[in-house]
Amino acid sequence: MKVHVVTAHPESRSFNFALRRLAVETLQDEGHEVRCSDLYQDGFRASAGPGDFEKPQGSGSWQLASAQLDHEKHGGFVFEIRREQERVLWADLTILQFPIWWGSYPAILKGWIDRVLSYGFAYGRNRTLPPRAAMYSVTTGGAATDAEAVEYRERVDGLSEDVFGYLGWQVLPPSICHGPANAGAEARQQMLDDFANHLRKEVVVET
After folding, report:
1. Which residues pair with 7 in a beta bridge?
2. What is the pLDDT of residue 57?
3. Where do the structural domains in the chain lie, given as residue ranges?
């Protein structure tokens, strides 16, 4: 299986990157091919707009979806979008690794969704990209109660369904690590071990 890991965290020494490194090691050990996109470190631009295209759209008011469809048909996305779309096309499974900030994605990852999973490429009639599989691996500031942990799970499921469920992808169960910033070394290691086991359970080795 070919796996694309998209990481959205500004600090490469963060627990999110520890999870990303573990994902790469675990998946490669299981025989998968892995490629990575590290959005902050790559300087990925968060906001969608006319700058997504090498050539401007024709006269008249500008509209994102119609511009994306036009450039999907005729070419002209800027390099960073073409690069990410090629990685998504290559992969059987895309893993999004990110912290929950204000109940949702970091802005840079929402921008990746807006710009890379574009109209005509990832959705719409005669889209270029067939459905794939997706998995979310997230960190939170902590869950004080079991009920709060359930609320986080429902929120993460909603985020994935709103995007990849809409696209018709297979959405694999998420991995959620609560409060790694405030956890001790032993608890953090247990989170890493649990994530490795989650990957081995959910990502089937292609035969």
Report:
1. 38, 97
2. 65
3. 2-202
